[in-house]
Request: fold
Amino acid sequence: MRIAPAIILSSGQRAILEQWARSRSLPARVVERARIVLLAAGGRQDKRIAAAMKITPKKVSRWRSRLLTLGLAGLQHDASRPGRSPKLTASFVRRVVNLTTRQTPPNATHWSTRSMAAAVGISEASVRRIWRSHGLKPHRMESFKISNDPQFVEKLEDIVGLYLNPPEHALVLCVDEKSQIQALDRTQPGLPLKRGRSQTLTHDYKRNGTATLFAALNAANGEVYGFCQEWHRHQEWLKFLRLLHQAMPSHLDLHLIGDNYATHKHPKVQRWLARHPLVHMHFTPTSASWLNMMERFFRDLTQNRLRRGVFRDLEELIMAIGSYIDRHNENPKPFIWTARASDIMEKVKRAHRALHKRHSG
Reply:
C-alpha cells in the first residue's frame, strides 16, 4: 500500500495556513489549498481528505507535494503551463514579414490587413498580430531628407554648440519667417463641438489675403518677438532685423540662427550685418531647417490658432497672431535641445549607409 509523505508544519506555517483557511478576501483556490494542507498535516490520507472536501485524490496529492517542494509560496500560484501550440509556424510568420517589407500588392502601394490576409490565406486578426509583434505599420509613412550641404558638419556643430553651450554676454535667437499665412473665411458657418459630434468646417473657403510673420525665439527663456508684413522680401527682413536690434540690450552680442533663404543673404542685408558687428548670423545646412527651433513654435501656432481659424480680413488674422504671441510670452517655456552633434551625425551616417545600400541593391 502506497503511503503519502507526511507533512510537518512549524508553528509559524500553521498560523499562516489557518489564517488563509479562514480568509474571505483571498482567492478561493488559495483557501482550498490551505485547508488541504492543514488536513494532511493532521495525519489524514489523500482519499479521506478528497472525500471530506469533495475533490479528487489526485488534487490533494498535487498540493501535498507542492508544499513539500516549494513551501507556502507554492500554494499561492499555479504552476506554469506550456500553453497551446501555435497554429502559424515560424517559417510562415517570416513569409508574412518578408511580403510586408519587400513586396507590394499588385494593385496598391502598400499592404493592408485585408489584402495580406487574402494573399497568404489567414485571418485579418492573425496578420494584425504578426505586424504588431514585429513593429510593422504599412499604413504609415514618414518623410525625410538628408542634407547634401558640403559644410553640413561645420554648420551642425556651430548651431548645436550655440544651443548646448551658449556664449557668455550674448543672446541666441532663432529667427525665421512664416510666409503665405492665409486669412481664410469659410463659405458657411461650421457646427460647434457637442456630445457625439465633432466640430465641422466647410471644405471650401474665401481667401482674404496673405501675411508673412517674421519671428525670433529667445533660446534661453522661450520668449517670441513677432512682426507681420504683407510682403516677404529683403526690405521686410531688414526692417525686422532693425527692430530686433533696437529691442535687444545694446551691450550683448546677438547670435541669430536662420535658414538659407536668399532674402537672408541679400547684399543689402550683408552690408547691414557688416555695420553691426555685434549681430552674427548662423545658417542652418540646406534641407536641415529642423535645426531651427523657431520651426517648433510655428508648428504650435499653426496647430493651435491658424488651422481651424476663421478670419474675415487680413487685419483679423494679424491680430490673432499677435494675440497668440502675447499669450505665449505671458508664461514662456524654452524648447530644451538635448541632442549632441555627434549623436546627430551617427544618425546621418546610418541614413547614408541605408540609402547607399538601397541604390546598390
Remarks:
- Strands lie at 170-186, 205-218, 224-229, 253-258, 279-283.
- The longest strand covers residues 170-186.
- Residues 305 and 324 are 7 Å apart (CA to CA).
